[in-house]
């Protein structure tokens, strides 16, 4: 019996599958499509997304292929409202965000999956799935069935897994239908800049893509008109581009249309069925958060599910998956929805806020830094979750349990230097004494042993780069491990059987 089946071979599903395979879990990947996508809507790989890919060994040469660091220029009625730098690195130890196609990211993930021994079953449309107490049964459109231990639904906004689980997907469309196309054109503008033009109620964005003259064009469809398709979409976008820049499209790679939605699943789990990525939440593409949020879901879920499959943790650990990731999705939905309404709203209030209030603020360096930091997702913290430390007694200053640990330079036991995040995924890392490393390995399996620790405090770092536990007492670490995976033995709790109260 397969341990985990991942439904959906997009960025979220492939990230989950690669992370699980790396942890030694038996994984199958199925997708209804006939093969890999050749076109994509997602473009932005944020620093957080790059870290996820690096930890699962799929980053490869993507940083050298994308456009790293970019400007944003907004022009309204012929006047430049905004000219800001938004794609720079937010910290010296993290990569800059970059513009790169989802197609390239998926290819890198498929390569990693193949290297790990995984395969993708294309043309495998899921017709239904039923969760039982100790397994799940998948039924495919060709009538075949499969029994598995767990199912990860990464099958997008119209998720069959979510529907079969009876999980609601509440929300609503935000705005009208949007047109987009990838085109070859000499715009006559810098290739390190995203451009947006407002002309009355009309809007057009031009986003540079890797390649000599490739751009992504996007605009809302005119209200009240017939819904455009194919060549008509490219023609309409070309007319708006010509009006804004005088440039003419030479060739069209692809064109499509979509409605911006704001939706989130009522819950992320139903028995043996789990949701991630667009199957759990969808939102506006403004800010380039969707793909990165989905990959973050996948990484968080994978290391927890791996511990359960390996028999190292109780099923209740999966409760922490939704508890940690749902607030992230809710925050992204809120921010992107507001930004979308502000950018594309046609009301006098929206226009006034954009031109009179927001534009001057965005021109300030402080706001630019804050916007870049927020988009990076490096500020994501799980400190308020069930594995975190907020609300618990005696939290030390500095990083607390649940915070992202910077990708600091560390030293292995043999004296060689290594970046912390390079030791993570699928394993953990412990910066501290050998005795604590041995204890962690007994409970968690693969734990990298690193030297250091401030003021005698050790740090146990999770596979996703967040701080698990910090302290100095073995009994306290044992107590945190019990909270993570369930009590193992009473002897693991220390000499007197009681956990220490002063460490996280």
UniProtKB/TrEMBL annotation:
<feature type="compositionally biased region" description="Basic and acidic residues">
    <location>
        <begin position="495"/>
        <end position="504"/>
    </location>
</feature>
<feature type="domain" description="FAD-binding">
    <location>
        <begin position="2"/>
        <end position="334"/>
    </location>
</feature>
<feature type="region of interest" description="Disordered">
    <location>
        <begin position="482"/>
        <end position="504"/>
    </location>
</feature>
<dbReference type="InterPro" id="IPR002938">
    <property type="entry name" value="FAD-bd"/>
</dbReference>
<keyword id="KW-0274">FAD</keyword>
<dbReference type="InterPro" id="IPR036188">
    <property type="entry name" value="FAD/NAD-bd_sf"/>
</dbReference>
<dbReference type="Pfam" id="PF01494">
    <property type="entry name" value="FAD_binding_3"/>
</dbReference>
<dbReference type="GO" id="GO:0071949">
    <property type="term" value="F:FAD binding"/>
</dbReference>
<keyword id="KW-0285">Flavoprotein</keyword>
<protein>
    <recommendedName>
        <fullName>FAD-binding domain-containing protein</fullName>
    </recommendedName>
</protein>
<dbReference type="InterPro" id="IPR050641">
    <property type="entry name" value="RIFMO-like"/>
</dbReference>
<dbReference type="GO" id="GO:0016709">
    <property type="term" value="F:oxidoreductase activity, acting on paired donors, with incorporation or reduction of molecular oxygen, NAD(P)H as one donor, and incorporation of one atom of oxygen"/>
</dbReference>
């Amino acid at each position: 019996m397969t341990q985990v089946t991942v439904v959906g071979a997009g960025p979220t599903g492939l990230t989950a599958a690669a992370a699980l395979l790396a942890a030694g879990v038996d994984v199958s990947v199925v997708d209804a499509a006939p093969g890999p996508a050749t076109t994509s809507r997602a473009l932005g790989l944020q620093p957080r997304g790059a870290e996820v890919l690096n930890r699962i060994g799929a980053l490869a040469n993507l940083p050298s292929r994308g456009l790293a660091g970019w400007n944003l220029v907004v022009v309204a009625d012929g006047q430049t409202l905004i000219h800001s730098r938004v794609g720079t690195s937010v910290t010296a130890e993290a990569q800059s965000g970059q513009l790169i196609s989802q197609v390239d990211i998926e290819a890198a993930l498929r390569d990693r999956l193949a290297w790990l021994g995984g395969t993708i079953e294309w043309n495998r449309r899921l017709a239904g799935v039923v969760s039982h107490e100790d397994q799940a049964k998948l039924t495919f459109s060709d009538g075949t069935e499969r029994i598995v231990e767990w199912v990860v639904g990464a099958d997008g906004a119209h998720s069959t897994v979510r529907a079969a689980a009876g999980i609601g997907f509440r929300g609503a469309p935000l705005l009208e239908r949007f047109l987009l196309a990838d085109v070859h054109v000499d715009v006559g503008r810098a290739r390190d800049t995203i451009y947006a033009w407002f002309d009355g109620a009309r809007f057009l964005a031009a986003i540079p893509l890797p390649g000599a003259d490739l751009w992504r064009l996007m605009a809302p469809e005119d209200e009240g008109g017939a819904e455009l398709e194919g060549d008509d979409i490219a023609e309409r976008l070309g007319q708006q581009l010509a009006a804004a820049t005088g440039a003419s499209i030479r060739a069209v790679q692809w064109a499509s249309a979509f409605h911006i939605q704001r939706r989130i699943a009522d819950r992320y789990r139903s028995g043996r069925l789990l949701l991630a990525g667009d199957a759990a939440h969808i939102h506006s593409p403004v800010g380039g958060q969707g793909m990165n949020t989905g990959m973050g879901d996948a990484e968080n879920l994978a290391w927890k599910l791996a511990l359960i499959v390996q028999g190292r943790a109780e099923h209740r650990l999966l409760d922490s998956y939704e508890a940690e990731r749902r607030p992230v999705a809710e925050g992204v939905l809120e921010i992107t929805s507001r930004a979308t309404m502000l950018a594309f709203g046609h009301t006098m209030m929206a226009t006034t806020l954009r031109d009179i209030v927001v534009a001057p603020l965005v021109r300030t360096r402080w706001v630019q830094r804050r916007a870049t930091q927020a988009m990076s997702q490096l500020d994501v913290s799980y400190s308020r979750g069930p594995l975190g430390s907020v609300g618990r007694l005696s939290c030390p200053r500095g990083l607390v349990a649940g915070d992202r640990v910077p990708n600091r330079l560390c030293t292995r036991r043999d004296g060689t230097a290594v970046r912390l995040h390079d030791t993570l995924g699928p394993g953990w890392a412990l910066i501290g004494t050998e005795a604590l490393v041995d204890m962690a390995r007994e409970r968690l399996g693969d734990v990298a042993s690193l030297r250091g620790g401030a003021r005698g405090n050790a740090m146990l770092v999770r596979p996703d780069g967040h701080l698990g536990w910090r302290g100095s007492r073995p009994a306290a670490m044992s107590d945190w491990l019990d909270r993570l995976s369930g009590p193992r033995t009473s002897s693991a709790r220390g000499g007197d059987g009681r956990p220490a109260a002063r460490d996280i």
